[in-house]
Amino acid sequence: MNQSERSERIKEFLERHQYYNAELYPLPGDASFRRYIRVRKDGQSFMLMDAPPEKETVHSYIAIAGHLYRKGYSAPEILAQDASAGLLLLEDLGDDIFTQVLKAQSSMEHELYSAAIDVLAEWHQAERDGAFILPEYNEELLMREICLFADWYLPQVVGRQEAAALKSEYVALWKNIFALGSLAMDKWVHRDYHADNLLWLPKREGIKRVGLLDFQDGVYGDAAYDVVSLLEDARRDVSSPLVDAMLERYIAASGADRAQFMTSYAVLGAQRNSKIIGIFCRLAARDNKFNYLAYLPRVWRHLERDLAHPVLADLHQWLNKHVPADYRGAIAIQHNSQDLALTA
Questions:
Q1: Nearest partner of 13 among 65, 118, 83, judged by Cα
Q2: Which residues, other chains included, contact 205 with Cβ-Cβ below 8 Å and sequence gap of 6+?
Q3: CATH 3.30.200.20 region(s) of the chain?
Q4: Rounded CA separation 317/304 (Å)
Q5: pLDDT tens readout for residues 137-148
Q6: How is residue 150 annotated by DSSP?
Q7: CATH, range 3-91
Q8: Mind listing the pLDDT tens digit for each residue in 253-297?
């Protein structure tokens, strides 16, 4: 479907739900094929999710949004939907993304991060809902994600053939790490819980002050994953004192075993940051989205901190051998997606 046909489909969808002659304001895009359009009509504002069905599916979003909304969290209410067309009309939660609020008022950092941690601590106390079916963040999925590093980043620094030869060593190291890490897979995990996906809603109370976005890839997994996502943010620096304070806040509020939680935090931090490095290289090599490469130095700093945990010692040694410090930052893309087709 070309852009003109897609625009007509959107117009038909809005008119079917009585939004005739609405004004449409597309929002800036992100790393996905999905886009959001603000819809204004008669002084009211809504958000349209446009997820082309040949590229995206909205079924998971619908299920998770409904679940979170019913449980009292500030996920956008779904006002109208055409799942087969990949179109959802959503409650408009506004523009006060944590990132933007903090740019304007850096003094609010502790308050906003505390509120975000409190949301995690509360939903991690909930029992797993048997009626709410999601995939599990099992070893197969974790391994598939860490292979993004071997498939997309490693070839850029050691070449395609050498990366292919090293991949089996890398995979074996991670299998051992997951065996030692004793991860629990019994909590609902957002999977992308960071400042760009959280909205500040100060007129609401308690957990409702934090608006939730982009949760459609949610799974059942280890509670530490979303804490890592928040505190080891690829797009903004979170100071070490704030990280320490938020870890203490989460452990106290959740009742988590400190030693086990910190092991899970390090393992999942290393897993997530390895995945992100691979994804950002894929976005550059496959999709020509080179701006994501600028985040690599920060992501590498996160990964290096995670690698200080003893359970990751072998991986730390392997990376020191095969990925020297000079390559742990912004890099030039040497291979495009066609070059990497044999390994990715």
A1: 83
A2: none
A3: 3-91
A4: 11
A5: 988 999 999 999
A6: I
A7: 3.30.200.20
A8: 999 999 999 999 999 999 999 999 999 999 999 989 899 999 999
Whether 281 contacts 293, CB under 8 Å: yes
pTM (predicted TM-score): 0.90
SS3 342: coil
The Cα 302–Cα 284 span in angstroms is 21
Q: Above 60 in pLDDT, residue 249? A: yes
CA angle 137, 282, 143 (to 5 degrees): 25
Q: What is the pLDDT of residue 128?
A: 67
Report the distance separating Cα 260 and Cα 61, nearest Å: 31
Token code pair at residue 168: 């089996």
Query: CA separation (Å) from 142 to 108, 214, 269?
Result: 34, 20, 12
Tokens standing for 284?
């550059």
Q: What is the CATH number of domain 98-327?
A: 3.90.1200.10
- Please, which residues have CB within 8 angstroms of residue 103's CB and are 6 or more apart in sequence? none
Task: Please give the structure tokens belonging to residue 191.
Answer: 């999977």
**Intervals of CATH 3.90.1200.10 along the chain:** 98-327
Q: Is 245 helix (H, G, I), strand (E, B) or coil?
A: helix
